[in-house]
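Field notebook, page 323. I keep forgetting to write these up properly, so this time I am using the form the group agreed on. The chain and the ligand, iron/sulfur cluster, are recorded exactly as supplied. Prediction of the bound pose follows.
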Amino acid sequence: MFTTALLRRDQTADLPHDLFAAINALKQELNAVILAHYYQDSDIQDIADCIGDSLELSRKAANTNADVIVFAGVHFMAETAKILNPNKLVLLPDLDAGCSLADTCPPAAFGEFKAAHPGHLVISYINCSAAIKAMSDIICTSSNAVKIVRQIPEDQPIIFAPDRNLGRYVIQQTGRDMVLWQGSCMVHETFSEKKIVQLKIEHPEAEIIAHPECEEPVLRHATYIGSTSALLKYAQQSSASAFIVATEPGIIHQMQKQTPHKQFIPAPPVNSTCACNECPHMRLNTLEKLYLAMKNRAPEITLPEETRLAALKPMQRMLEMSL
Ligand code: 13P
Ligand code: SF4
């Protein structure tokens, strides 16, 4: 479905010396806004107009006056911006920047799952394709999932998709019995409970903070669990001087910027010879590709109008229910 967007030799030859200045100039020329997720490279975070978690970026995309939205994140995030802004040009620096979690929920199989659970309301985590959104009743993010599920009448059965870890966390928080689609994120399931416990012994002053996409054995050790923005806020407000951070380490750039005197230790993956705690999809975007996307006005996100309209309804319900 995606095209490969590696930088070709002839493209790199065209790159300006000062990419920051060139991107800022293109921003003016295109009347563009750059939205970036916390898992992006530091350079991209630094040039963005808005950095946020999925909910904040969706809200920003819904309210922007810009003509062009440059989405420095993964495909489902840029697609969400397009769902909300059919008449704007939405650019993603690398169209291959997908999401392992979204990939665990193919539409045909999900259709069969829905059919096997008649009468269920479908709440889908925003980390899914537009096709899955179009099959859902309400979208949620990691920052509003608990709030949204609490608003559903007690006697209404619920399917929660695609992340089983967030789903299980929401069940624990709300006491609601939900049917879970068994999807997960390869990055958040890479953390080693054993190594985190070992780190905590070496740094007894550190608090463990974790994203709800992590597995239960990791979440059990966390002092605080929340979306990327919630983790950032917690790290700023907590009196602790050190944190073991169980989410993609890109966020540590903002944590360190906000509180330079505190220490942030990335939670280690099971396999210490890889950088598996970095999201390989998010990291496909680079400052160079961001510049080229703006210069070439491509790669562009497009969607069949029928899918977009069907996906828009549950997105709007989410925005209304999370005011
Ligand atoms: P947030 O909504 O917490 O930013 O999470 C997005 C994500 O992709 C986590 O893996
Ligand atoms: Fe998807 Fe996981 Fe990457 Fe988030 S960290 S974008 S859920 S693969």
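OBSERVATIONS:
- Confidence is low (pLDDT under 50) at residues 1-5.
- The pocket of 1,3-dihydroxyacetonephosphate (ligand 1) is lined by residues 53-54, 127, 141-142, 185, 211, 213, 227-228 (CB under 6 Å).
FOLLOW-UP: compare against the apo run.
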